[in-house]
Design a protein that fits this description.
Blueprint: H1 9-34, H2 45-101, E1 106-109, E2 113-117, E3 121-122, E4 139-145, E5 150-156, H3 163-177, E6 191-195, E7 200-206, E8 212-217, E9 226-228, H4 233-237, E10 247-252, E11 255-260, H5 271-278, E12 283-286, E13 289-293, E14 303-307, H6 310-315, E15 322-325, E16 329-333, H7 336-357, E17 372-375, E18 383-386, H8 409-462, H9 466-495
Antiparallel strand pairs: 1-16, 2-13, 3-7, 4-5, 4-8, 6-7, 8-9, 10-11, 10-14, 12-13, 14-15, 17-18
Helix pairs in contact: 1-9, 2-7, 2-8
Amino acid sequence: MGSDITLSAGVRQNLLSLQGTAQLMGLTQNRLATGKKVNSALDNPANFFTSQSLNNRAGDLNNLLDSIGQAVQTVKQADTGITSLTKLVDSAKSLAKQAQQAAGPETDYAAVTVSGTLGAETLGTTGDGTAITVANSTTFSFTVDFGAGAKTVSYTSDTSATIGEIQDGLKASFNAAAVSSGLKVGTGGDVELVNNTGGDGIKINALKSDVDMTVGASTSVGLTAAAYDSTSMLDNLALSGVVAGDTLSVQIGNKTANVKFGTAAGQVSTTAEFNAAIEGIGGSASGTALSFTSAAGNKATQVKLDASSANLAAGLGLSAQNIDQKGAGTIVSLSDTRETYQNQYNDLLTQIDDLATDSSYNGINLLAGDDLKVVFNENGSSSLTIKGVSFSSSDLGLEPLAGDEFQVNDDIDAVLTNIDKALGTLRTQAAKFGSDMSTVQTRQDFTKNMINNLQVGADALVLADTNEEGANLLALQTRQQLSTTALSLSAQADQAVLRLF
């Protein structure tokens, strides 16, 4: 409904000006009160929503900043745990060294002997299936070289002789000729009369380095007239299946020797040469006997044989290719001091386990296998997973000592080796955690700066300049006063008509 009051044009114009000034003063006073020039989407939609988006992201990052800070504390706790574990492991090392320096028990070590056999070589073969016949007479003729010149041994059997009688006759003839040679006739000897599935025959066995034989015998005894002699190094040593170039590494006590078999210079090709190569360190090779014996009374009683091939090991009569034996030590009396150190060492391992278990922070223990995931942005696309480790004493390679390990210096050396490995593991992991913590702290600082940038940017879009707004308010107050004065003057013009009455 329109107003029934009629205002002059001047009054109305001054009134509109005064109303506009009042409206601007209200807007300016609101900006000064709120500190913002954009208080709603009506003020400036683009700035309002952009500022709101930036503030929302800053809020999300601020929430992440708290979790990043907790992650830093978790890693610090793990680092503190590693530092303490290192001190405990150092203490364990100190105990082991003190035990090693303490007087040890009295120990006596037995000598070690490893025996082998240079097996006999078969020079002839058994009968070919034809039975021995003694019709009329059968002459067995052998030329035997005992190293002192050839000797001929002949035996003529009786036409009615039995196999046993033939064997007895052979024994008598051979033993008479070989009285100084060690040649044996009979079962297991150098010359045997053997039974075959198809008949009987003669078998000749010998170490060829000792005996060479030339047999001129009737084929009825199963031997072809031929020369049976040694021509190669391996045959001389009776090492069946071994090839030239095979080696035997020998350690007797603190002495070592490396024997290479072959016919080249510096290589071994006879039993005598083999014996010469090993007798200086405590070995002996003679005939078919092979022996390696260490001295007794100290820890240097080890005998270790390492053959380059299984054939060589078998040819030497050794049960395994690598033989490592030590003298059995008999501890006369234990050291109470060392035993005390060992008990303290075991107690320290328990403390290591307890400390590793207690190194948790906010439910996460990086020293007990827990992993820690740190998220760096609001959508989770940027993160870091810090892998946990298990650092109990057993995980560090430190096992409780259940025997008398601290009584033997060599065993203490083994413990010290494990301790050094554990210290290396701890230091390596400490460096890894340090690198991870540096990364997290860098992202923490980055996030703080990003939040600040987002907030500054958001404020730049909506915050008012209070100095400017204050100046504006002062100007508007002046304008209001002037508008009021102008309105009064306009009203006075209308009042002039009253003077006519």
